Amino acid sequence: MDYKIRTLIAGWLYLGEKEPVHAWYIEGNGIKVLVDAGMPESKIVEKRWKTKAEGGGEDAIINELKKHGVMPSEIDIVILTHMHFDHAWNLDLFPNAQIIIQKEEVIHAIKPVPIQRSYYNKELNVKLISRNQPKNLLIIEGDYLLKDGLEIVFTPGHTPGSLSVIVNTEKGKVGLCSDLGPRYQNWFPADSEISNNPKRFLEGSYLPNTIHTENVMNYINTMEKFMKSVDIVIPAHDDRIPVHMPEQWWGKPSMSKDPLEVFALKEE
Questions:
Q1: pTM value?
Q2: Whole-angstrom Cα distance, residue 70 to residue 113?
Q3: Domains: count for the chain
Q4: Is 212 helix (H, G, I), strand (E, B) or coil?
Q5: What is the per-residue pLDDT across 43-86, written as a single tens digit (0 to 9) for each?
Q6: Domain region containing 89
Q7: In a 10 Å sphere around its CB, with 0-12 CB exposed, 13-18 middle and 19+ buried, how is residue 242 labelled?
Q8: Cα–Cα distance, 210 to 115 (Å, whole number)
Q9: Nearest to residue 240, comparing CAs of 4, 2, 9, 39?
Q10: Adjacent-strand bridge partners of 137
Q11: H-helix or E-strand containing 154?
C-alpha cells in the first residue's frame, strides 16, 4: 500500500539560527495520520523556555492541515515521535484521535534525565496519560506495524523512547526520522554538498543529535540501521526537505542548488 505525505510547518525556533519545526500528514489505506503535534505558540515558548520563536500553537497546525483539505477532527491517529514540547504540544486538537507513543518515552517524560528536564512539560504529560486507553492512547513497546506500508520503529537516541516512521510511497520508503537526525548534516556529516563545514573524519558514519540520552556507539548503530531500511530520510528541523512526497523526492539537498529553487518547490 502506498501513501502520500505532506510536510507541515508547525512553527520556527531560534536555536543559534532560525530552524523550522515540522510535522507530517500521511494519507492512504483508508486512514489519516499525523506525525507529531507541533510546538506551543511563540509567546509561550518565549515565556517558558526563554527561546525566540515564531508561529506555533493550534492555529499553525490547523492552517497547515487546511492547505491539504483536512480538519483536525478528521485525523484518525497521531504518532508522537517523542514528548519534547516542540513535537507534542497541541494534543487538545485531537480529542477523538488515537495517540501512539512508545512506553519508554512515557516513562522518560515523567522522570527525564536531568539534562532533558527542560524539554518536557508536566501539563502535557497529564493531558497524554489522561486519555482513554486504547481508543485515544496506545502505548507500544518496540516496533509496531500500524498498517500495511506504514511502520513505526523504535529508534532510541535523542530520547530513550524516540520513534521514527517508515512510510511506503510509489517512489520508495520515506523515513520520517524526527530528531534522531534533526538535520541533513546528521545523516551526511562529511558531505560538502550538505554543509559548508563538512566533518571529513565522519566519512561513512553519522553524527548523533547533540541532545541525546543514549551511548553514542548505540546511537550511531541505530541511525545506520534506520538508513538501511529507507530510501530517503526526512529530518525534523531542516528547511530543505521535500514537502509533497512522493511528488518531490530527494535523498539529500545540494549546497550548489539555488535555494530559491528549493523554496519554489515548497510552494507548489
A1: 0.93
A2: 37
A3: 1
A4: coil
A5: 999 999 999 999 999 999 999 999 999 999 999 999 999 999 99
A6: 4-266
A7: buried
A8: 12
A9: 9
A10: 99
A11: strand 150-154
